[in-house]
């Protein structure tokens, strides 16, 4: 336990350090002196500096950590629950549902807040449908397999609906807006929307973080876990409900950001081993570290901003291949 | 609260199987108590897994009732039930490289609160079980790297950590070498003497003699119950179950209590 607390502590410190550096990075020049005096007393002689740091960079940094952490935590919880390392938070259709919700709201020219609400609702509805379909098929036989297949079907359905919305969108304004939303971006995060998202992410993360031991037991399979005293149905609903809450709320904030939820839990598992009690919190921290890093690339690599979803996919794919090579030498 | 040490499972006019399919086992009437040892014999595919899943409350009976100390099995929570009935699956692989100590601690889950983690008492229970099964040297090994025999002992230890009065074992000896089989049977016998109910499947009828067990025969959708191994293990019954000729002989040093042994006739 000693060693594990040390891992978590050093990752938290790393994240804080990275956040400081991220405040400093950007087109508007900020000297380290100015940054420190801003951090200490929030005072600055330069009126623009306050706006840049507090209203543009800081919400973006907090948003990146929340989005990366939430996606990675949800991915880790799903990988444990489905007992499958190839599972991502999208497995039950939350991304395509949220994408459809956002696309529809953009098509109807609703304001930004309604786009977010619609994305959140779309994601939640898609997962609800997947669970409902799997339950109506019956839970006597391989419940997990039926659930995954239902998720695939619902995902495909909502992807088709997204295409339908795009097809009917006006190609001058709405279509590009939808396309950009689907690529994901942290550029538009504002300070005032963060408290809601952070509250939702916290509400969803806590039950997951507290289910670590039960997910450990579940790794021996459905029947054995039940014989060991776990109400597997209830546990599964807690995990699905919480994971959907956190993913839907961060997707509403950032649009679609792929790969983080699939790749980062593996990194965490390589560091901690299979014990979910430590792997889950570490997944959150390292997801935050990773997405903040990628977002810094997204906003500083080129003269124009690169959509974050493209960066995570470009970086995630080769990274995942390397990971697979390392992992395939070990047990899983 | 049900007394953990004195359990009685009653199965009355019960059919077992999966919904929307033909029942695998029909009109079973049976009583199993925690001071008895049962060996379950039967061909592959006769419904042993279904039988176990039903006794564990995982698969509800299609008709009839299964009660534990008078209460229907379905009215127990998973947690309550795990403290009363423990299950030992066949030694298996999992993809997760947990330590042996942790695997056995999983058996303590039912004794923890909902989001709980193991406490000091749980660690003590695990230590004493490791000691009793003489596998303390495995405590810090990785479960997935153990041999089949060692894994089997660990899974048994995990079930014992549940401190249940009834132990259900699925072919516990089938993956073990000769020496480990004998050692395992010795442990099972010791558990039975400590008043833990034993219900185990086996493909070795001799084990029923060795354990001085009662016998359940699963055949053609019904469960036949014999109070005594030598009553069950007779050439004509074995022929009916397994389709081979078997003779039952008495063996042992003269003067000591003789042991019956089944010998398949492979010349005829």
Any low-confidence stretches of chain A, pLDDT <50, length ≥5? none
Shape of chain B: globular
**Structural class, from helix and strand content of chain B?**
alpha/beta
Our estimate of the beta-strand percent of chain B is: 25-35%
Shape of chain A: globular
Q: What would you report as the Rg of chain A, rounded to the nearest angstrom?
A: 20 Å
**Total strands of chain A:** 0
List the secondary-structure elements of chain B in sequence, H or E: EEEHEEHEHHHEHEHEEHHEE
β-strand number of chain B: 12
> What is the share of helical residues of chain A?
over 70%
What helical percentage do the residues of chain B reach? 25-40%
State Rg of chain B: 19 Å
Low-confidence runs of chain B: none
Structural class of chain A comes to mainly alpha
> Average pLDDT of chain B, to the nearest integer?
89
Largest sheet of chain B: 6 strands, mixed
The interface involving the most residues is between: A-B, 31 and 34 residues
Structure description:
The complex is a heterodimer of chains A (332) and B (268). Chain A has 332 residues and is mostly helical. Chain A has 14 helices and no strands. In chain A, helix 1 packs antiparallel against helix 3, helix 4 (94-107) runs parallel beside helix 11 and helix 9 (212-218) crosses helix 13. The longest helix of chain A is centred in the N-terminal third of the chain and has 35 residues, at 47-81. Chain A is globular and about 65 Å long. The model of chain A has no long low-confidence stretch (mean pLDDT 91). Chain B has 268 residues and is an alpha/beta fold. In chain B, 29% of the residues lie in helices and 25% in strands. Chain B is built from nine helices and twelve strands. Chain B has helices at residues 48-55, 78-82, 100-105, 120-132, 148-161, 178-193, 206-210, 229-232, 235-242, and strands spanning 8-16, 25-33, 37-42, 63-68, 71-72, 85-88, 166-169, 197-201, 214-219, 222-226, 246-251, 259-264. In chain B, strand 4 and strand 5 form a beta hairpin. Chain B is globular and about 55 Å long.
């Amino acid at each position: 336990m000693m060693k594990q607390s040390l891992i978590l502590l050093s990752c938290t410190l790393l994240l804080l350090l990275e956040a400081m550096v991220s405040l400093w990075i950007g087109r508007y020049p900020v000297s380290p002196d100015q940054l420190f005096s801003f951090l200490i007393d929030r005072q600055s002689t330069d009126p623009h500096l306050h706006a840049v740091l507090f209203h543009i960079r800081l919400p973006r940094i907090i948003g990146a950590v929340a989005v990366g952490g939430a996606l990675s935590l949800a991915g880790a919880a799903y990988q444990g629950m489905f007992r499958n390392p190839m599972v991502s938070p999208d497995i039950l259709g939350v991304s395509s549902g949220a994408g459809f919700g956002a696309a529809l709201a953009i098509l109807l020219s609703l304001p930004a807040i309604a786009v977010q609400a619609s994305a959140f609702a779309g994601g939640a509805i898609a997962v609800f449908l997947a669970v409902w379909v799997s339950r109506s098929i019956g839970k006597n036989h391989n419940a997990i397999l039926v659930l995954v297949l239902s998720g695939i079907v619902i995902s495909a359905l909502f992807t088709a609906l997204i295409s339908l919305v795009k097809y009917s969108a006006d190609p001058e304004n709405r279509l590009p807006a939808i396309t950009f939303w689907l690529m994901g971006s942290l550029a538009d995060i504002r300070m005032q929307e963060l408290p809601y998202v952070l509250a939702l992410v916290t509400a969803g993360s806590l039950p997951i973080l507290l289910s670590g031991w039960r997910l450990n037991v579940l790794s021996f399979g459905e029947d054995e876990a039940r014989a060991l005293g776990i109400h597997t149905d209830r546990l599964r609903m807690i995990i699905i409900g919480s994971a959907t809450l956190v993913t839907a709320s961060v997707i509403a904030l950032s649009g679609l950001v792929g790969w983080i939820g699939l790749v980062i839990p593996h990194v965490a598992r390589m560091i901690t081993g299979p014990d979910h009690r430590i792997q889950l919190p570490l997944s959150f921290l390292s997801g935050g570290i990773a997405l903040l890093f990628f977002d810094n690339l997204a906003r500083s690599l080129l003269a124009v901003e690169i959509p974050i979803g493209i960066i995570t996919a470009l970086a995630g794919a080769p990274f995942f291949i390397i990971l697979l090579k390392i992992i395939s030498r070990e047990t899983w | 609260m049900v007394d953990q040490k004195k359990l009685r499972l009653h199965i009355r006019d019960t059919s077992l199987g999966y919904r929307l399919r033909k029942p695998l086992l029909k009109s079973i009437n049976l009583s199993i108590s925690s001071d008895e040892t049962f060996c379950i014999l039967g061909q592959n595919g006769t419904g042993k897994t279904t039988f176990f899943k039903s006794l564990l409350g995982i698969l509800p009976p299609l008709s009839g009732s299964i009660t534990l100390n008078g209460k229907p099995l379905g009215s127990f929570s998973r947690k309550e039930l795990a403290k009363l009935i423990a299950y030992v699956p066949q030694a298996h692989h999992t993809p997760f490289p947990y330590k042996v100590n942790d695997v056995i601690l999983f058996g303590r889950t039912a004794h923890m609160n909902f989001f709980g983690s193991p406490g000091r008492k749980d660690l003590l229970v695990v230590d004493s079980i490791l000691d009793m099964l003489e596998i303390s040297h495995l405590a810090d090994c990785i479960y997935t790297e153990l041999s089949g025999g060692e894994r089997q002992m660990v899974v048994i230890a995990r079930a014992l950590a549940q401190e249940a009065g009834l132990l259900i074992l699925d072919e516990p000896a089938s993956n073990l070498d000769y020496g480990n089989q004998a050692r395992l049977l010795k442990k099972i016998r010791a558990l039975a003497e400590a008043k833990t109910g034993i219900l185990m499947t086996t493909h070795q009828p001799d084990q029923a003699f060795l354990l001085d067990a009662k016998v359940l025969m699963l055949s053609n959708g019904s469960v036949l119950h014999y109070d005594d191994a030598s009553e069950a293990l007779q050439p004509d019954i074995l022929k009916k179950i397994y389709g081979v000729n078997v003779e039952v002989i008495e063996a042992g040093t003269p003067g000591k209590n003789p042991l019956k042994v089944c010998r398949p006739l492979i010349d005829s």
